[in-house]
Amino acid sequence: MLDYDAEAEAYDATRGGAPRAEAAAAAVLGLLPAATGTLLDLGCGTGIVTARIAAARPGLRVLGADASYGMAAMARSRGVPVVLASGARLPVRPGSLDAVSAVWLLHLLRAPGAVAAVIAEAGRVLRPGGVFVTTVDKDAAHDVGSDIDEVLAPHLTPGPADAAPEVTAHAAAAGLRPAGEARFTGYGQGRTPRGSAAALLAGRYASRVRPRGTTPRELAGRLERLPGPDTPRAEPTYRLFRFVRD
């Protein structure tokens, strides 16, 4: 697992920067009802998406939450009010929010029961009619049929934490029903063989790749030997689901 405190300053530059953040913010906003007055962004990270959501809709009160002090500090530097908190235990009154978002969060929660706990907490803090917006199948979005995917395929972790059917089932248990979805492009996230090798060795694929019958270094070497080592493959398309609180 990454040390998010240590990664905070360089995090955005390695993950598509402003173009990807703007696409994500626009997609989230497209799933929020016009009358939404309050939004809590779970796992807000550096606030690069959160700040853009707030700027695009001035009447919306936006709060971020993140468990990493370094990430929260970056978000605050962008003008995002942030609470240092786990998504499974929020310092928020029941039924007090109009919307909760979780962009690129659930796929990281590999501990048993972690995804269900975060979704249940979102359901707890939402008012009746409030919406929960979350990315699903995040890691799978990077499988674009490339030679990189072919190398990594035998080493993918089974049962991604944010698989759409499981997220939907957890949402139902929390009193949240499906109410639409959106897709957006992961600008700047078309993987290169050399970049994928570096990410593997740095632990950035920890939620997705577990080398089997080989070492991380050997697997990285296979990636580095692919043709066009610095040529980006196709960009991913991410999915957002919207759920409404009964």
Observed structural traits:
alpha/beta; Rossmann fold; seven-stranded mixed β-sheet; 9 helices
Describe the structure.
The chain is an alpha/beta fold and 246 residues long. Helix content is 35%, strand content 20%. The protein has one domain (4-138, 159-189, 235-245): Rossmann fold. The chain contains 9 helices and 7 strands. Strands 3-2-1-4-5-7-6 form a 7-stranded mixed β-sheet, with helices on both faces. The protein is globular and about 55 Å long. The mean pLDDT is 93.
What does this entry show, briefly?
The chain is an alpha/beta fold. 35% of the residues lie in helices and 20% in strands. It is globular and about 55 Å long.
SSE succession: HHEHEHEEHEHHEHHE
Which band does the percent of strand residues land in?
Answer: 15-25%
CATH level-two architecture: 3-Layer(aba) Sandwich
How many separate domains? 1
